[in-house]
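[step 3/7] fold_predict: job queued, chain A
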Amino acid sequence: MYRTIICGIGMGPRQTASRLLRRAVALMDEGGSIVVMHVIENIPRRHLTELPEEFETTAIVDAERKLASLCKELGIPAMIEVRIGVAASLLVSVAREKSADLILVSSHVTDITDYVFSSIVDKVVRHAGCSVLIDRRPDHPWEGSASPAEDAAVF
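[step 4/7] structure written:
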């Protein structure tokens, strides 16, 4: 179905990340590739003076390690991309760089900031040059129930 899939993994539950990765594998063409992407949102420069000098590097390495571990645990070969910036813009630009034909992201419970600033998913859908699949979380607690380990956050 899809040759190159960008799988956007946010800071949500591990169960969501696992579901996204499994869905990406199910949608991938034989010989295709999955790029697992996590974006560490920009930190305003005025706050960087309050953080350790190696904060960004440590955050990237930690996220790469956690994503690689999750992919290994699920038996999913994937390229890991962790970047610092604006999530929606980076998902769209990496999809363009990799000539992806699908971006797979997860929705979340809408809050007031989505109405004021728009959500990452909304921005990706509007600006992507390829198909975007939005994976919806189960609406009811009895659907897709997870063990406590699966329900823990990836990050």
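[step 5/7] annotate
Residues 2-139 form a domain with the Rossmann fold fold (CATH 3.40.50.620).
The helical segments are 14-27, 45-48, 55-74, 87-97, 112-117, 120-127, 148-151.
exit 0
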